[in-house]
Amino acid sequence: MLEGKVVVVTGAANGIGRAAALALAAQGARVVVNDLNVSLDGTSASQSTASQVVEEIRAAGGEAIASGDSVAEYASAQRIVETAADTYGRVDAIVNNAGIVRDKMFHRLTPEDFDAVVKVHLYGCFNLSHAAARHFREQSGGSLINMTSNSAVIGNRGQANYCAAKLGIVGLSKAMALDMAAFNVRSNCIAPLAWSRMTETIPAKTEEQARHVEKIRRMGPETIAPLICYLASDASAEVTGQVFAIRLNEIFLMSQSRPVRSVHRSEGWTAQSIAEHGMAALRASFMPLDTSAQVFSWDPV
C-alpha cells in the first residue's frame, strides 16, 4: 500500500514508533527513523537507538535512514524533514509519535516538568508538521498522523502536563486538517492503547489498577501499526480531521466537542438564575469525572 511513499516516524526507536517504522517499511515505504535516544523522562540516554531500527528494516529488504534530531526545537525538526527530502526526494507522511512523560499529581508538578512534556509532544507535533507543510503544498498532498492519548481525550490522574499536550494535539490536528485541505493534505489523530514505555508508568498499586495493567500488557505496539499504515496510504485520501482510538482488535471513532444541551432565558441570565435554573437544567448532561480506564473498562478481544 505504500510503495514509493516516504514517511517520517518520530520516537521510532521503541514501542509504537518502532512498530510503525517496521510496518511502514514492510508495506513499501522508505522510512526516516527519528529518535533522540533518550530515557522516558527525556533526561538520560536510552539503550535503544534509531540506527538499530534502520538495521532491522534493511535486513528485511526495506529502505530506511536514521535521524537523531529533536522535535522540540523548530530548526532541528526542519532537519528531520530535510533528511527525508534530501535522501529520498520527497516526504509523503509524518507520524508525530515522539514523546516523554513526567507523571506527577498536579499540586506536585513543576513548571519544568510541564514545559518539557509540552515541548516534546505539542511543540514537536507543530514543529515537524509545519516543516513538512511546504513540501506537502508543493506536491499537492500529504498525511499528518498525530498521536494523542485517551488520557487526554477522556482524562487521567497524575498527568496534567501530558493531558494538556495531548489534547492540544487534537486541536492542532483539526486546525491543520482545515487549513491544509485546499492542498489535499489530511490530518488525523490516533489515541493508542498498547504496552510501551509510555504505559509502563501506569500505577498498579491496587487490585483494580493491576488488572488494568495486565490488560494493556496483552496489547503490543504492533497492534497500532496497521492503522498508521492505512492513514499514510492513498486509501485514506478522504479521511481527515478525525480522532481514532485503538486497542488490540478494536478501532473506535471518537466524538469531538459539540453542544450537548442548551438552556435559554429571554431576559438574559444572572448569576442567581444560572444557579437556580440554568445549571439545574444542564446538570443531567454533565460529563462524569471518568478516567480512560473507567471508560474502556471491558476486556479487549
Structural class category? alpha/beta
Summed up, the helix count is 10
Enumerate the strands of the largest sheet in spatial order, edge to edge or round the barrel.
3-2-1-4-5-6-7-8
Uncertain runs: none
Shape: globular
CATH fold call = Rossmann fold
CATH architecture tag: 3-Layer(aba) Sandwich
How would you name the CATH homologous superfamily? NAD(P)-binding Rossmann-like Domain
H/E element string?
A: EHEHEHEHEHHEHHEEHH
Helix content: 40-55%
Radius of gyration: 20 Å
In the CATH scheme, the class would be Alpha Beta
- How many beta-strand runs? 8
Mean residue pLDDT: 92
Distance between the termini: 27 Å
Number of domains: 1
Strand percentage lies at 5-15%
GO molecular function: oxidoreductase activity
Keywords: Oxidoreductase
Pfam family, one: adh_short
Organism: Achromobacter agilis
